[in-house]
Amino acid sequence: MDKNNSISFDGDPLGMLEAMHAFQAGDAGAFESICPQMRRAVYARACKMGLDPDQSDDIAQRVLVRVYLYAAKAEFATKGRLWSWIYTITTREIYKDWRRKRPEFISEEGLRALFASRTADPSGDPAAASVAGEVIEDVGECIGRLEETQRLCLLGPLAGDLTFRQAAAVHGLSLGQFKHRYEKAMGSVRDCMKSKGHEIQ
Hints:
The protein is mostly helical. The protein has one domain (about 15-195). The protein is built from nine helices and no strands. The longest helix has 23 residues, at about 80-100. It starts with 15 loop residues before the first helix and ends in a 6-residue tail after the last helix.
């Protein structure tokens, strides 16, 4: 995988947004032209949220299928809105995967409420999903060392764009309980990063 993970359409006559609009208008080939870029960005976001390479690849495939099936009903005025929609689908698929594997830690009611009210972030951009650089790699490794319950509490606010209140609802915890678990997990990551020569807040 390209560590830079930048999304580029150099040599492609259509940009990402234009290609999606062409696909929505019935040009199936336009979707094929954006699949590699979309797959890399979704894969990177899944890795950032603590999934291993195989899990991240599975999430990327599921997201591509959902984008293909539902893009015709969506509206994208800007590239930011398009990427925000893709990343919202990505986050939903990751939480659904966590819910299947560890239902005791992810509340079904909280998931429904989260995705019923979740709004697209217009600032969404592929660069935000980059997993490049030594610091990011070290953070990912430190997060990967956490127990699964700690990792789930940490990743919602850090990589899933959830507020503490939203994340607490997803986990079926009170706000105070969730913050306590989050701080404990963050403390472990800080200690791990310090051992690697990094200082994080």
